[in-house]
Write a structure and sequence with these properties.
It holds the Pfam family Aminotran_1_2. Helices cover about 40% and strands about 15% of the residues. The protein is an alpha/beta fold and about 400 residues long. The chain folds into two domains: about 140 residues, Alpha-Beta Complex (Aspartate Aminotransferase, domain 1), CATH 3.90.1150; about 240 residues, Type I PLP-dependent aspartate aminotransferase-like (Major domain) (Aspartate Aminotransferase, domain 2, 3-Layer(aba) Sandwich), CATH 3.40.640. A seven-stranded mixed sheet has the order 2-8-7-6-5-3-4, sandwiched between helices. It has a four-stranded antiparallel sheet with strand order 9-10-13-12. About 55% of the residues are buried. The N terminus is likely disordered. The structure holds 4'-deoxy-4'-aminopyridoxal-5'-phosphate (PMP) and glutamine. Glutamine binds next to loops.
């Protein structure tokens, strides 16, 4: 007998917001989790705040008068700190005046970059699954969204497929490394191929690196460090993930002065500027010592392994991430009789009521064809307290009994 969550082809897209600007999947699942009191492993935000010292800096900045508009390009201290961060970790030289732009989260940097460079007649190439705002912003820009698939189990780039996805109309290639939702960290070979093809087709590279400090195997390697890349690359990051302050929405873009000037021009009319006291606190926070940065990845690795074990014991097939804070798990083995039918989008809607755990279906990060390929995958966030992950694992263990 087919279960309600195992049904439809259309079901795979019930929750999708891609290409249709409805309520985002994050909003929808978080609302559902709140209503049912479920453990929210859906939306990717930590359930513990970042360092108290950084919070104290916000209060000090407010008391010290940092309460009016920040300059459009960001306060000088933060631009300096971002420039020093790029030098310290990656030996990348960016001029704080012309080559750094502070934005309202990485989200605004992504939006302003796409709107600055892409319009009708252009193609923007992303990998698929893709982070939801990419699809929405490419749609708003009027450009065509072309994708190259990343497939389970390792979600690595297939170089031939990537090459076939480029064309003379490719204006931007937008990658996300480490990758959300899959947790893949792209190989050096894949990064080199992206640079080679972007150069051949004279496309710009936009690299969303918000999970740069959350890697489990090897240190992060920005694509801008590869030969020939820096001159055509805009790198985007955010304080949200690194410091566990997603609500502060302090992000940034770095790259060649002419490219950053174009992004800044659009950004002026999106928000102009935001979060003056938060900018001040993050300017200070970026100077944390090496132990701090190492500690973030170490503690997340333990959480990843805890949740991965729980999911395996519950009967899921687990695709272990190399970076970021999401695990993709396949629901198909939970119902061997109708494994072909397993539909994670329907299950995601029922999971909070069934066992009190919320997750996001990977199909919502896809256009219909790829949604079909990824329809049995659920994405679980593990940036949560250890006791929350332990309880989630326990509840997931009861899923087999209630299905
Ligand atoms: N890019 C990716 C890949 C993300 O996962 C997120 C959110 N977690 C963002 C961008 C948005 O970052 P911010 O909250 O700084 O706007
Ligand atoms: N980036 C977060 C995630 O992937 C969510 C951000 C949002 O809610 N827009 O879960």
């Amino acid at each position: 007998m087919s279960m309600p969550w195992q049904r439809t082809a259309e079901g795979a897209n019930l929750l999708s917001t891609n290409g249709r600007l409805g309520v985002t999947i994050f909003e929808e699942i978080t609302t559902l989790a709140t209503r049912t009191g479920a453990l929210n492993l859906g939306q990717g935000f930590p359930d513990e705040d970042g360092p108290q010292e950084i919070k104290d800096r916000v209060k000090a900045a407010v008391d010290g008068g940092a309460n009016q508009y920040a300059p459009g390009r960001g306060i000088p201290e933060l631009r300096e700190a971002i420039s020093s961060h790029q030098k310290r970790f990656y030996s990348l030289a960016v001029d704080p005046e012309q080559e750094v732009l502070v934005t309202t989260g990485a989200t605004e940097a992504i939006a302003a970059t796409i709107l600055a460079f892409a319009s009708a007649g252009d193609e923007v190439l992303t990998f698929e699954p893709f982070y939801d705002s990419y699809g929405a912003m490419i749609g708003l820009s009027g450009a065509r969204h072309v994708t190259a698939p990343l497939n389970a189990p390792d979600f690595q780039v297939d170089l031939e497929t990537l090459e076939a996805a480029f064309s003379s109309r490719t204006r931007l290639v937008l990658l996300n490394n480490p990758h959300n939702p899959s947790g893949a960290v792209f190989s050096l070979e894949a990064l080199q191929k992206i640079v080679e093809l972007a150069t051949k087709y004279d496309a710009l590279i936009v690299s969303d690196e918000v999970y740069e400090h959350l890697t489990f195997d090897a240190p992060h390697r920005p694509i801008a460090t590869l030969p020939g890349a820096a001159e055509r690359t805009i790198t985007i990051s955010s304080a949200g993930k690194t410091f566990s302050f997603t609500g502060w929405k302090v992000g940034w873009a770095t790259g060649p002065a002419t490219l950053i000037a174009a992004v800044r021009t659009v950004k002026q009319f999106l928000t102009y500027s935001s979060g003056t006291p938060f900018q001040a606190a993050i300017a200070w926070g970026l100077g944390q010592n090496d132990e701090f940065y190492q500690g973030i990845a170490d503690s997340l690795r333990q959480k990843r392994d805890l949740l991965a074990n729980g999911l395996r014991e519950a009967g899921f097939t687990v695709h272990l991430p190399q970076g970021g804070y999401f695990i993709n798990a396949d629901v198909a083995p939970l119902s061997l009789a109708s494994a072909q039918e397993a539909d994670a989008a329907l299950l995601a809607r029922q999971l909070p009521e069934l066992i009190g755990v919320a997750a996001i279906p990977v199909s919502v990060f896809c256009h219909p064809e790829a949604a079909q390929r990824n329809r049995s995958l659920l994405r679980f966030a593990f940036c949560k307290k250890t006791e929350v992950l332990e309880e989630a694992a326990r509840r997931l263990g009861t899923l087999k009994d209630v299905l």
